[in-house]
Amino acid sequence: MSDSELTPSKLALRRTVQAQRSRRTADEQAALARRLTAVALELPRLRAATCVALYASMSDEPDTVLLRHELRRRGTRVLLPVIADATTLDWAEDDGRLATAAVVNSVRSIAEPSGPRLGPEGLGAADVVIVPAQAVDTSGTRLGRGRGYYDRALAHAARGALVAALIHDDELLDATTTPVAREAHDHPVQAVITPTRWLYLQ
Ligand SMILES: Nc1nc2c(c(=O)[nH]1)N(C=O)[C@@H](CNc1ccc(C(=O)N[C@@H](CCC(=O)O)C(=O)O)cc1)CN2
Ligand SMILES: Nc1ncnc2c1ncn2[C@@H]1O[C@H](COP(=O)(O)OP(=O)(O)OP(=O)(O)O)[C@@H](O)[C@H]1O
């Protein structure tokens, strides 16, 4: 979907977050990624997981490469999304060798694993599903990139899986004063992980 189809409040919030993100230097991003990885690895549910769904970060997102590497080093399976079509995410195991896929459905090209595809229902193997977000409010409503991929994908998550978003501290919003507009299809997240803390919501 194009920006013009987003609700005005979502659009304004995306612009604010994108402006905040674009001000961070590469050095700052690297330092934040190290702190985020350390915080994430303190989360008991993540430490106990045998399989974690993550994502290959785009340049403006908190960098996940260290976290994915560390999880794999500990023997945790890591799944990454593969864009199957305009609405569907497929999944494949992160083997540390990602290739930048051809641009599909005009989404910015994102690195993807080239190993066997597990299907949209492959997400069900994950004990923890870590999702990208531009912002999350304290009631767990998530602002994504506006294509609805994750709202659909999360229908395949295991019932007991923990769904957590990786965000910067200034992207956690107070639901009473600055809520993210929640729509019927929105799948809430249960926790956020930032460079300074992890926090259960709701
Ligand atoms: N790292 C990462 N992987 C992900 C997601 C994500 O948010 N982050 N997704 C989460 O759903 C899915 C891909 N969704 C995407 C949705 C939009 C754009 C994109 O290029 N958006 C443009 C502007 C808005 C638009 O044209 O829609 C951009 O950001 O420049 C890219 C990926 C699956 N993989
Ligand atoms: N479960 C669903 N079934 C049908 N349509 C959906 C579903 N989830 C989302 N959509 C569609 O996707 C559009 C974008 O949704 P939304 O703005 O919540 O995406 P997002 O969570 O920000 O994006 P993403 O998951 O790609 O990061 C919605 O306007 C809606 O039309």
N-to-C span: 29 Å
Major pleated sheet: 7 strands, mixed
Q: What is the CATH fold-level name?
A: Rossmann fold
Number of structural units classed as domains:
1
- Global geometry: globular
The level of helicity is 10-25%
CATH architecture: 3-Layer(aba) Sandwich
**Bound molecule kinds, no repeats:** the ligand Nc1nc2c(c(=O)[nH]1)N(C=O)[C@@H](CNc1ccc(C(=O)N[C@@H](CCC(=O)O)C(=O)O)cc1)CN2, adenosine-5'-triphosphate
List segments where confidence is low: pLDDT < 50 over at least 5 consecutive residues: none
SS field, number of helical segments: 5
Order of secondary-structure elements: HHHEHEEEEEEEHEEEE
Number of strands: 12
Strand order of the largest sheet: 3-2-1-6-9-11-12
Q: Decide which structural class fits the backbone.
A: alpha/beta
Mean pLDDT: 92
| CATH C-level category | Alpha Beta
CATH superfamily: NagB/RpiA/CoA transferase-like
For the CA atoms, what is the radius of gyration?
16 Å
Kindly list the characteristics that best describe this protein.
single chain; binds the ligand Nc1nc2c(c(=O)[nH]1)N(C=O)[C@@H](CNc1ccc(C(=O)N[C@@H](CCC(=O)O)C(=O)O)cc1)CN2; 22% strand; 5 helices; seven-stranded mixed β-sheet; alpha/beta; 202 residues; binds adenosine-5'-triphosphate; 12 strands; globular; Rossmann fold
How is this structure best described in words?
The structure is a single chain. The protein has one domain: 3-Layer(aba) Sandwich (Rossmann fold). The chain has five helices and twelve strands. It has 202 residues and is of the alpha/beta class. It is globular, with a radius of gyration of 16 Å. It has a seven-stranded mixed β-sheet. The longest helix has 15 residues, at 8-22. Helix 2 runs parallel beside helix 4. The site of the ligand Nc1nc2c(c(=O)[nH]1)N(C=O)[C@@H](CNc1ccc(C(=O)N[C@@H](CCC(=O)O)C(=O)O)cc1)CN2 has 18 residues, from strand 2 and helix 5.
